[in-house]
Amino acid sequence: MGVLVSCAKPVYYAPIMLSLPNILTILRLAAAPGVVIMFLYFHRPAADWFALILFVTAALTDFLDGYLARKWKQESKLGAMLDPIADKAMVVIALLVITGFSGMDPYILLPATVIMFREVFVSGLREFLGDTAGTLKVTQLAKWKTTAQMVAIAILFAKGAFEHYHGVAALSTFVAWWLGIIALWIAAGLTLVTGWDYFRKAQPYLGGPVP
């Protein structure tokens, strides 16, 4: 009895964790502490400019990695897990830096506190729900919330850079300050709404005994 031998070349697939969308997400996660490093190793305003460029570049990958993952059918559990972590790390660390350099200005401190509280609360809620955390799917409003946060932070980083110059930059500093404050309060409002929405959806799973 003869044996059939296939001459077809084997097809090798790159590990899903090395896909470009996942690499972009990992780089975005690494960029979060990079914002702090800019202020540790560079003087202002160079540090402000470098932090702004790094933050905006990382924020753009937030939209690019998801788009590429869907287009190339490379969506993975690793990417789904790392994506929100990278977003939260970027936002929280950047807000800590901005709040510190603002001298704990209440116009920044209050919305920043709301945003950071919500991020910790929702993360804890997802961890508690475990396997049922899938019920807390990311909504379109939550995506707008993230966009508003990143826009506000980028504007406030730009304000930090402008304030070291004179002349026309003085007007730019004033405009950037108020635009950043307005955007940050809008982001805080969306943050509260989406946080309440997640809590409402989780309520059916919070009434029973601890598993």
Automatic annotation (TrEMBL):
Its EC number is 2.7.8.5. The chain crosses the membrane at residues 20-42, 49-69, 89-110, 174-196. One of its GO terms (molecular function) is CDP-diacylglycerol-glycerol-3-phosphate 3-phosphatidyltransferase activity. Pathway: Phospholipid metabolism; phosphatidylglycerol biosynthesis; phosphatidylglycerol from CDP-diacylglycerol: step 1/2; Lipid metabolism. It is a multi-pass membrane protein. It catalyses: a CDP-1,2-diacyl-sn-glycerol + sn-glycerol 3-phosphate = a 1,2-diacyl-sn-glycero-3-phospho-(1'-sn-glycero-3'-phosphate) + CMP + H(+). It is an enzyme of class 2 (transferase). Its main location: membrane. Keywords: Lipid biosynthesis, Lipid metabolism, Membrane, Phospholipid biosynthesis, Phospholipid metabolism, Transferase, Transmembrane, Transmembrane helix. One of its GO terms (cellular component) is membrane. Belongs to the CDP-alcohol phosphatidyltransferase class-I family. This is CDP-diacylglycerol--glycerol-3-phosphate 3-phosphatidyltransferase.
